[in-house]
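Researcher: We're reviewing a set of sequences before deciding which ones to prioritize for further study. For each one, I'd like a predicted 3D structure that I can look through quickly. This is tRNA-specific 2-thiouridylase MnmA. If possible, include the structure in C-alpha cell form so it fits the rest of the review sheet.
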Amino acid sequence: MRVLAAMSGGVDSAVAAALAVEAGHEVTGVHMALSRTPGTLRTGSRGCCTVEDAFDARRVCDLLGIPFYVWDFSEDFLDDVVADFLSEYAAGRTPNPCLRCNEKIKFAALLDRAIALGFDAVCTGHYARLIDGALYRSVDLAKDQSYVLAVLTPDQLAHSMFPLGELTKPQVRAQAQARGFAVAAKPDSYDICFIPDGDTHGYLVDKLGARPGAVVDATTGEQIAEHDGFFAYTIGQRKGLGLSRPAADGRPRYVLGIEPTTRTVTVGPASGLDVRLVVADRVVFPGGRRPDFPIRVQAQLRAHGGTVGGSADLVDGTLRLSLDQAARGVAPGQTMVLYGGATPDAASAGPAADQYVLAAGTIVRTGG
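Model: Here's the predicted structure for tRNA-specific 2-thiouridylase MnmA, in C-alpha cell form for your review sheet.
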C-alpha cells in the first residue's frame, strides 16, 4: 500500500513509520505545520509539531530512506482547533483540543489530502489497535489513546494504521534506539501546543477579554469571591479558586457549576460533584455497528481518567449513561467514550470485550 506517515517529530511516530516501511509499504513522511508563526507553538519537550520537531522528523525519514514533506495546515488548525477551543470555553464548557486535532486535522484534513493524492492510508504513532476495522485499546493501557481516536468514523479508520497498538512505550523506545533514531529518548509532548507559556488562563483572557463575575457558595448562596473570567474554571477544580475564606466545615471547595450567561461560578463540597447520569450528543460509532440499546458498558469520561461501569441507552440521538457508582469531575464539553460489546469477528483476535470502542459523544449535561 501507499502509506502517508504523519511525523510529529517524536519517538512514537518515528517507530510507527519504520514499522510501516518494514511491513513492505511504500511510505512517505509528512510533518504538519500548524502555525505560520513558530513562536506561537510550544517548543522543547513541551511542544508538538514545532519547527524543531520538523527537523527531528526529517532526520528519521532520511535514516529510513523515504521522502519527507512539510504540509501547511495552519489555517485548518486555527479554524477547527483553536477557534473551537475558544468558543467552548466561552460557552462554559471544557474542550479537549488534542482530541479535536485528531478529529479535524490528522484524520480529516490530512487524510482527505492523502486520499486525494492516491495514498491508501495514514499511519500515526497512536497507541491503539485496529482489528477487522474495529478500534480497540492498546496493549499498553498506560499509554492507550483510543479515547482521543473514538470520535473517528468507520471510513476514517478504514484508511488508518496504528502500528504501535501491540507495543508498550518501553518497547517503542528500545526499537527507536536500535534503529539509531536520535528521538529515542525524546520526552513526550504535553500541555496545549498553541499556548506557548502554558498560561491557559492568561491566554483565554487575552483572546476572550476579561469577563468578571461572582464566585458563589452553593451551600449558602453567598458571594465569596470575584473572578475575571469564568472560563478560567472547570468542573471539579479545587486549586486556584481565589476564595477569601475557607468553608464553615473547613473542608475544600470545588467548582460545581459554570454559568456563562450570568458569569457565575458555583463552588461547594466534593459531594456536590457526584453524578449518576451523563448525557452526550454528536454520537459516533467508530466500529460502524450500532448495538442494541440499552447495553452494559465501561465508560471513560475524561482523557486521563479511568473507566466506570454503567448502562447506556440511545434516546433521540443522544447517549444517556446511567452509572453504577457516582463519578466526579465530569465536565460538559469533554468526550464520553463507551467500551464493550466486542464485535463477534474481532473477539477471537485477543482483546477482551471491554477493550472495544463502542461509541463516543460530547458530554452536554450531567445529573445526580
